[in-house]
From TrEMBL, chain A:
Residues 470-681 form the Rab-GAP TBC domain. Keywords: Acetylation, Cytoplasm, GTPase activation, Phosphoprotein. GO terms for cellular component: cytoplasm. The keyword Metal-binding does not apply. Residues 422-432 have a biased composition (Pro residues). It comes from the Eukaryota. Interacts with non-phosphorylated form of RAB8A; phosphorylation of RAB8A at 'Thr-72' disrupts this interaction. Interacts with ARMC12. InterPro entries: Rab-GAP-TBC_dom, Rab-GAP_TBC_sf. This is TBC1 domain family member 15. Acts as a GTPase activating protein for RAB7A. Does not act on RAB4, RAB5 or RAB6. Transmembrane segments: none annotated. Residues 417-439 are annotated as: Disordered. It is found in: Cytoplasm. The lineage of its organism: Eukaryota, Metazoa, Ecdysozoa, Arthropoda, Hexapoda.
From TrEMBL, chain B:
GO terms for molecular function: GTP binding; GTPase activity. It comes from the Eukaryota. The keyword GTP-binding applies. It comes from Aphis gossypii. The lineage of its organism: Eukaryota, Metazoa, Ecdysozoa, Arthropoda, Hexapoda. This is Ras-related protein Rab-7a. Keywords: GTP-binding, Lipoprotein, Nucleotide-binding, Prenylation.
Amino acid sequence: MDVTKLDEEELSYELRVRGIAAMNDVNEMRSVLRGLLRIEVEGNSLMNTDSTVSVVDVKSEIKTCVKKLQIINAMIDNIQGDRYSEQYRSADAKLCHLMNRVDKLAAVDKRDQNDRSNLLKGILFLMRKMEGMASNTSVIETNNQNQNSGTAGAGTVVLYEKTTTTEMNSTYGSSESTASDEEVGTEYFVQQGVAIKSLSKLLKGSKNHKNAETHYTGLLRIMKYRNAKFIEWKPTEMSIFPDIDEWNIVDTGYKQNGKNKNDRNSIDIKINLATMKSYKMKKHKKHQISILQTNGSLVTFLFESSPISDFVTALKTLLHTEKEIRHHRPTGVILVMGERQDSDPLCQSIKELKIFPDQPPTSTVWSFISGFQNNPVEKTYETFAKISDVLLTRTPDTRPDQEVAELLNRAEEDDEYTMLDHPPPTVLPPRPAVKSRGNPLDQTTFYLSMNEEGRIINEDYIKKIIFHGGCENSIRHEVWKYLLGYYPWNSTREQRINIDRQQKTEYERMKVQWMNMSPDQISRFNKYRDHKNLIDKDVYRTDRTLDFYAGEGNENLVKLHNVLMTYVMYNFDLGYVQGMSDLLSPILMIMNSDEVESFWCFVGFMNRVNTNFELKQTGMKKQLNDLHYLLTTVSPKLENHLKKMDSSNMYFCFRWLLVLFKREFIHSDVMRLWEVLWTDIPCANFHLLICVAILDNEKDTIINENFGLTEILKHVNNLCERIDLDKALTTAYSIYEQLKEAQPSLQDSVNELLGFSISHTETILSIDSNSREDDYEKALSMNYT
Amino acid sequence: MATRKKVLLKVIILGDSSVGKTSLMNQYVNKKFTNQYKATIGADFLTKEVMVDDRIVTMQIWDTAGQERFQSLGVAFYRGADCCVLVFDVTSPGSFKSLDGWRDEFLIQASPSDPDHFPFVVLGNKVDLDNRAVSTKRAQQWCQSKNGLPYFETSAKEAVNVEQAFKTIARNALAQESDVELYNEFPDQIKLDGGSSDNRSSGGDNCAC
């Protein structure tokens, strides 16, 4: 480890673990550490570097390590020279430091352990990445390193595994023996104090039990015995939960095993992961997860708080899962697609490296880790040497795998957003010819579709016309209110008058809230002030080239401002985010500057796209990821090129998606496009297919000119106002039809995105679409009758 | 050393919303100003060929969105930057206060190899306006506290100091670029100590220097 490359914080850590108090002078720290390292290498160290450091806060230490990992990753990406360059050596030294540091992390709970193993995995990945660079320059030197390598005995393996188990038991204060009278297995997850809600088997009997139920708390574990993995639950005590709302709904319809109150032993539960069909999580006072098995039995576990995410994480690492989609939306049910082959993430990465070719994966992992534990210096040498051996003789794969990629890009906390694997390319049928664009919806057709009360009788018919041809400008003022949910389609004239009145009052009420804010009050209301400043600035530069907003002192700018400010009061958590003024601008024009109508239509629009504006940008990331997924299916050739050019992040489509092409088309086209999207025909994610259609049209240029990320971004930005909207729309629709035809052979996630039904669940679940939340329970209850 | 490679300098412009990032870039590259620029969404760049000390270099100037939450996606474009331009609006104290944050953010995201000496250039824009709220002295003090960053007061609208500022940006970016090349051109020099004791692994620093 080159001590000159470490920064102050890193130096003081290295010294601290060697029992040396903090010093003020960085140079002094370096020289002391250098001396110590030399002694250690010679094997004369009196210091015990093995002891885990008493880190005050493991979580923050993990955070620091993740940050460091990200920094090193970026450093490696920026390395311009060879392995002797300053940059390479810096990254190298920092990586060594990080490895020692992660190694010393005293991870107590499962989540930390998981983080720790992911960190180790990330470090391994970066080591490979660096070795990949180094291998270009020199081959001879690795011999020296090999001589330093030692082997970790198999004995340590068992020892370490045992320690982990003991540690775990003591941590969770397990009151009953966990494995004493059982065969010994590997523990993937353990949690004390998990309650079980219901335990159903296909029994006939009483249907209703609406009173308070008896529940049992116990120890929940995921275990592996020989080749099978199980979710295990054993009761520890009995407790009564008060009746929790929704339980009635949840439980109605399936049966309780009447005996289990008396016979505690009979309710030990063991679910083979191989027989898991699906699960669903709920958060209602307590976190709960319901697991459905293939034989129809259902078990619901109740968690006190956050450990449920650890449990789910554990499940996800062991199982291939997919979200279930019905009616174009995720139902919240997670379908189990099968078990993962080799679940331990660390295990996988090491296996991939093929450093230890002849040993079973588990033992290699533990020997690897215990090696680090017992002799970090030597083990590090050894691993580096082995890794360089592997990598010098084969081309390194520089794509991080899923977990590592996630870790490297991880924001504050993990969210539901996960990178999807690349599916094998499906051969699609030719793109069918589709109806060319039709005529816009005209006034006569629109008003004729209403009955004498003013209800629109054939909503679908009207939407279909709009999908194929848009709307005449003269009736947009009316039609958009339906499309954006301000008026229900089946409302009567009278009801609409009521809506107008109510919503006007409601708007005025919220508007007064910000208008009455005194400067003094605002001076102590930072967040509000930030939103206001941003709105002031953005309003002034929104569509000023259009006559409607042109010129100094334009009244419409004031209205734009008012609606946006009122939206801040309406949805303060989201507030104002750049891009919103772009979405509001055409609406205000169409609504003839009516603030109330504009506001509520804007609310309707925002309800569709608010995830685009989230602080953590998860919505945008998901869309970019989904878009990539669709492109993989529709245009594998282009996707291949993007992958080669390190551009599969699809960032060049960011502007398209954030404001739904507002900046890409001339004003009249934007309105036509939005109308089409608001019909939700043919599916909810049609805008992604439009992206695919446009990109597909540019594919030859992008591939033939060998564009990289920078050039693609430029090219895409330059398409602004040069895209043929009608062509893009018909192509997108044609792609939709093409995919629909290929539907049975498509990946479930593509089907999910496009709202194609996934066969095996659709058959059971086609009952009622109004309350999606309860479908799962309903479907489950059907399983028992 | 006989033939010089064509040099591409990547410059990133950062700063709060509406401080004039897009305007500065357009004034420098296209010699144009309009107050009809829209808020930048995503990222975009313009290129310009310039002469710096007898060398022709291509500047690739990146304009980014100012709202903080969009930064996470900008990271992909920060990589390999040769210079970072921090812009604030002299009429907005808030935008001046944000400079620290932008600088730190850049260093974390782009993680240049030598953060202490990475070239930043600071621009106080909109000096054509009357309602100035950040004094030259205050801005200079801040720049001084960050290892003496070059500071320019500009007006993208009236093309004040824009050319000069970007000249410095180009020169400093090029200096950064040449530092890197130096290592590429003389690997042997460093190889000497690398060959005798291998520095690849943990604790392996036997050099007593």
